[in-house]
Write a structure and sequence with these properties.
Layout: H1 7-21, H2 24-32, H3 42-53, H4 72-84, H5 92-95, H6 97-105, H7 108-119, E1 125-128, E2 144-148, E3 151-162, E4 169-175, E5 186-192, E6 198-202, E7 212-223, E8 227-228, H8 234-251, H9 266-275, H10 282-307, H11 317-340, H12 352-369, H13 374-385
Parallel strand pairs: 1-4
Antiparallel strand pairs: 2-3, 3-7, 4-5, 5-8, 6-7
Bound molecules: flavin-adenine dinucleotide.
Flavin-adenine dinucleotide binds near residues 212, 366, 372 and 379.
Length: about 400
């Protein structure tokens, strides 16, 4: 059910609120803060608290969960007003992976405990999905969760876990039943990270950063009420969560490391070409126009997919957006290098444009691997969007404990 409010009244209300609360000082404070990848700064948290308390953060959500039960069209009025003054924090009912997954599938006690903190970014999260022997084939996970009374005891290893060092909880998939086929024995949890049974070891990336980690789970304790969905129904919860993740990756991407040339958007590329005195080059102009068009088309496609998405469901169209964004990022990085020519070979802080070109070339792989590789997105699109025959899966119907592999054991 949606709340009845006139569009004009709503627009006036949000404008009024923004004019009273979104002050130049707050905007300046947020702009000046050093970027953090997985945690919100105190100023960001203060702003988000205001937005959530005023019920602008998730306007499509029910009123009992900080929302206004508004229609998609009316929520967009709010988003447009926030965007007009460049204020962040609304639209979390579309993009907040953690909060949306919890709202759709969580038990009441866990929602009560965490949803507010997730919207206000005072609770930090990570994804405990991939394992050394299970990445693209996530259903092959071997981390186990065994029920003991009101708790699950978790043992296993995760890898490529972004943000694990700062996370309060990890969205964890673990096997709770080894006697059924692989997709049917998986459960989905919010696993507390700050406990003795969780050891996080950082990994070094090709960009010289260290965002992801190995996570070793040794008798880690997860309360039973932290399970999302039913025991053994974790695959369905996972697919919903993955669709949210893909939609976010299909919509946005990280900008430059230094912010010196305005990130990976198409317009900064035009500025770069102008600075390099190459904006008259007809071949380059054509490539710039093509890249800008791809970005625009992709954002329209993602918006269309989201408009069809009810809370707690997933859409394979999200895979199309993520795959397209992956291609766009590689193409933009290539174009950046082409614009700079030999200068792109330079290294060091005196050459920020070259540093950005190199960083963005390497970082483009983030989107083409993380959240499911390009090849996996193509499989999903082939099977679920185009209706092509499914890939053969020889282990799909046999009990997981009988699946022959080279790793681990039950
Ligand atoms: C920047 C980044 C951040 C990440 N963050 C997280 C995180 O926070 N949490 C988390 O759990 N994981 C995370 N990951 C892991 C990511 O989800 C996996 O790397 C990805 O799913 C691929 O798994 P894999 O590395 O095991 O590769 P593999 O599955 O071993 O794949 C190797 C190659 O084989 C191809 N391939 C495999 N199966 C098929 C198939 N059926 N058809 C066609 N080609 C196939 C793949 O496309 C790939 O090219 C992150 C990865 C990156 C790059």
């Amino acid at each position: 059910m949606t709340t009845s409010v006139n569009d004009e009244t709503l627009r006036e209300e949000v404008r009024q609120w923004l004019s009273e609360n979104w002050t130049p000082e707050i905007a300046e404070e947020l702009r000046n803060e050093a970027p953090t990848h997985y945690t919100a700064s105190p100023a960001q948290q203060r702003w988000l608290t205001k937005v959530v308390d005023a019920r602008w953060a998730a306007p499509r959500w029910p009123e009992e969960w900080f929302g206004r039960a508004l229609s998609n069209d009316q929520a967009k009025i709010i988003e447009r007003e926030f965007a007009r003054v460049k204020a962040p924090g609304t639209g979390q009912d579309r993009i907040n992976l953690w909060a949306n997954t919890l709202l759709a599938q969580g038990q009441p006690g866990l929602k009560e405990k965490l949803i507010e903190g997730l919207l206000k970014s005072s609770v930090n999260m990570c994804l405990l999905y991939s394992e050394p022997g299970a990445g693209s084939d996530l259903a092959g996970i071997r981390t186990r969760a065994d029920k003991q009374g009101d708790e699950y005891i978790v043992n296993g290893q995760k890898v490529w876990t972004s943000g694990a060092t700062t996370a309060d909880y990890g969205m964890l998939i673990a096997r709770t039943d080894w006697d059924v086929p692989k997709h049917d024995g998986i459960s989905f949890f919010f696993c507390p990270m700050k406990q003795e049974g969780v050891e996080v070891r950082p990994l070094r990336q090709i960009t010289d950063e260290s965002h992801f980690n190995e996570v070793f789970l040794t008798n880690a304790v997860v309360p039973a009420e932290n399970m999302l969905g039913k025991p053994g129904a974790g695959w369905k919860v996972l697919n919903t969560a993955l669709a949210y993740e893909r939609s976010v990756m299909g919509e946005a991407a990280r900008g430059s490391r230094h912010g010196s040339t305005g990130g990976a958007e198409a317009q900064p590329l035009i500025a770069l070409a102008r600075d390099a005195g190459r904006l008259d080059d007809p071949h380059l102009r054509q490539q710039l126009a093509q890249t800008i068009s791809y970005r625009r088309l992709n954002s329209l496609n993602t918006a269309r997919a989201k408009a069809d998405l009810a809370q707690g469901t997933s859409s394979s169209i999200m895979s199309l957006g993520k795959l397209a964004m992956s291609r766009i990022l590689h193409e933009e990085a290539r174009l950046r290098t082409e614009i700079l020519g030999a200068e792109s070979l330079l290294e060091g802080q005196e050459y920020p444009a070259a540093e950005d070109a190199n960083f963005l070339s390497l970082n483009a792989y983030f989107t083409s691997i993380g959240g499911g590789t390009d090849q996996i997105q193509r499989n999903i699109i082939g099977e679920r969007v185009l209706g092509l025959p499914k890939e053969p899966e020889v282990d799909k119907t046999i009990a997981f404990k009988d699946v022959k592999t080279g790793v681990g054991s039950t």
